[in-house]
Structures are given as C-alpha cells and as structure tokens.
Write a structure and sequence with these properties.
binds adenosine-5'-diphosphate; binds ligand NAX; 286 residues; NAD; Carbohydrate_kinase_pred_CS; single chain; ADP-dependent (S)-NAD(P)H-hydrate dehydratase; 10 strands; binds magnesium ion; 11 helices; ATP-binding; 45% helix; ten-stranded mixed beta sheet; Ribokinase-like
Length: 286
C-alpha cells in the first residue's frame, strides 16, 4: 500500500487561470437529504462550494430549502422528487454526488434510480451513504460513469459482501476490479483503491468521529473532481488528504472537529497548498 503525502495537494491544486469564469471550474449536482437528514446534504453541499466548484446545485427534500439557503446561499436548490428537473441537473453536471442523507425508503430508491438513469460515461459519480446501502439492498446495477464509492466499513460490507473483519487489501481490490470504480474505504487511515494502486491515508484523527464527517468528504470529492477534472483520480486523492489534514490541524486545539469547520477552512487551506511547498505548514487557520 502506498502512503499518500501532501505532495498530492501541490500536484492537484493549481493556481486559477486569469482568463477563467465559474464555468471553468465545473458543476456539481448533489442529491440527498430527506426530511430527517437534511443536514447531511447541506454539509456535503457546503464542502463542494468551499472546495471551489464553479456551480453547485442541491437536489433535496423541499423542507430543506430554507435551511440550505440560510446556510449556503451559493448553492441552488431543486426538489429531489421533481424527476425532470433532477434528470436535467444530473445530465448537466461535471460531477454528481448522490447519497448523503438520501434515506432508504421507496422515495429514496426512486430518486436514486432517476439519478442512475441520467448519468453518462464522461461524468464523475460519487456514490455515498444511503445510496450505497440502497444499491446493495436492491442489487442495482452500477451506471456507466466514472464511479467513486465513499463507503465506511459497514457500507463496504453491504456493497462488497466482505465482512468488516475480513476486509483485506487483496479482497477489497478483487471487488474493486469487478466494479471497475474508485473505492474510498473510510476508517482510521482510510484506504483508496484506484484502477492501478492502493493508497493509504497516514493522517486523520478520532476527533473526526462525528456525524456528517463523511458527508463532508463526499462533497469535497464532488468539488475537487469537478474543479480539477483534468486530474482524474488524483483529485479524489487530494480531497481525501485535504479533509484529514485540515481536521488534524483543527484537532490541535479542539477535542472534536465539526464537519462544517473543515469546509470553512478549505479556501485558505487551498490557497496555502497552491503556494510553494515550503510555506504550507505555517498556520493556515490563523
Ligand atoms: N446530520 C445528518 O443529517 C446526518 C445524516 N447521516 C446520513 O445518515 C444515513 C445513514 O448513515 P449512517 O452511516 O449513520 O448509518 P448506517 O446504518 O449506514 O451505518 C452505521 C452502522 O454501521 C456500523 N459501522 C461499522 N463500522 C463503521 C464505520 N467504520 N463507520 C461508520 N459506521 C460503522 C455502525 O456501528 C452502525 O451500525 C446516510 O445517508 C448518512 O449520510 C449521517 O451522515 C449522520 C449525520
Ligand atoms: N478514528 C478516526 N480516525 C480518522 N478518521 C476518522 C475516524 N473516525 C471517523 N473518521 C472519518 O470520518 C468520516 C466518517 O464518515 P461516515 O461514517 O460516512 O460519516 P457520516 O455519514 O456521519 O458523515 C470518514 O472520512 C472517516 O475516515
Ligand atoms: Mg456516511
């Protein structure tokens, strides 16, 4: 297993060209957040916006609209039960993120099927949380797209059939190869399975063991893969690394890290990473 280093950040986070506009940095469409889990999709959307995606649209339960706009006026809203609107927002996206707080009832399943029916091979599709659980339970086929799964160990057990205690690199890779997708297996020292390589994240802290931490990562993967779309899988690696690097820094002075704090720290963190490597350790949160 290859250990990720902060080098990945310097490779991926490039200065923005002068001659650019929001369309240069990709569109992210996020789908999730039922009546009970609105916070999950708001956290994911916040992460996508703060990662620098050009345009972010959140397809969620109508009841979350006010909270979304109050927290994150940069995001646009769509009702996730409006099949036609979701279909066109999914088709137009650089990256689609589906699953944070989606839930696992009949409505959730219908929405997930609509998303899967409208993605195309050139798009990135981040499948997280409830969407992984639903796919496994309903035995849904994986749509043709550049698929990135972000399961925790139980979600990976459901999807892969490999029990948590048996999730070895060899077994995980065999399932990854069958899926032909990128797998971000989240835990302490998260593992990332790409087509060619297995990476391990050597950083991260138990201060991250807080609800919404994975929703935030899913939004960051969405934001990075849209903004840095030419970087391919490296954008996923950079998002995973940045998520825990920021958390480690916050955890120097806090017992726990709140997921939205990671998102809010992203713009200044990314500015430091864009700078020369020798400068990047100097207190980016100050
Ligand atoms: N504020 C919100 O709205 C939140 C909504 N959430 C959403 O709630 C839905 C259900 O997700 P959950 O993950 O809570 O529930 P799940 O039922 O999918 O997974 C939790 C179960 O997995 C087990 N488990 C084993 N290993 C684990 C590991 N390494 N990490 C996490 N759990 C592990 C736990 O003990 C528990 O029994 C998702 O759609 C998620 O996005 C959660 O993210 C929590 C916050
Ligand atoms: N002890 C830990 N050490 C490092 N990272 C952790 C630890 N516990 C949780 N995390 C990270 O927090 C996130 C949890 O994801 P997930 O369980 O999907 O959260 P949620 O669905 O509540 O948002 C993952 O990125 C995981 O790697
Ligand atoms: Mg999760």
């Amino acid at each position: 297993m290859k250990k990720l280093t902060d080098q990945i950040l310097h490779e991926v986070i490039q200065p923005r060209p002068d001659n650019s506009f929001k369309g240069t940095f990709g569109k992210v469409t996020l789908v999730g957040g039922n009546r009970n889990f609105g916070g999950a999709i708001i956290m994911a959307s916040t992460a996508a916006v703060c990662s620098g995606a050009g345009l972010v649209t959140t397809c969620t339960d109508q009841s979350n609209s006010g909270a979304l706009h109050a927290q994150l006026p940069e995001a646009m809203f769509a009702d996730f039960t409006d099949d036609q609107q979701v279909a066109s927002l999914v088709s137009a996206a650089t990256t689609v993120v589906v699953g944070p707080g989606l839930g696992d009832d009949e409505t959730s399943l219908h929405i997930l099927k609509n998303v899967f029916a409208n993605v195309s091979p050139a798009q990135n599709l981040v499948i997280d949380g409830s969407a992984i659980t639903l796919m496994a339970r309903e035995k849904l086929s994986q749509p043709k797209a550049n698929v990135i799964y972000t399961p925790h160990e139980m979600e990976w057990q459901r999807l892969s059939g490999i029990k948590i205690g048996d999730q070895t690199e060899e077994k995980n890779r065999a399932v990854r190869d069958r899926l032909d997708a990128t797998v971000v297996l989240k835990k302490h020292h998260t593992e990332i399975y790409t087509a060619t390589t297995t990476y391990q994240l050597p950083i991260g802290t138990p201060a991250q063991a807080v609800g919404g931490m994975g929703d935030t990562l899913a939004g960051m993967v969405g934001g990075f893969t849209a903004e840095f779309k030419d970087q391919g899988t490296k954008a996923v690696l950079a998002a995973v690394y940045a998520h825990s690097a920021i958390a480690d820094k916050i955890a120097e002075s806090q017992y726990i890290v709140l997921p939205h704090q990671i998102s809010r720290a992203l713009p200044s963190f990314m500015k430091k990473m864009e700078a020369a490597p020798q400068e990047h350790h100097i207190g980016f949160l100050n």
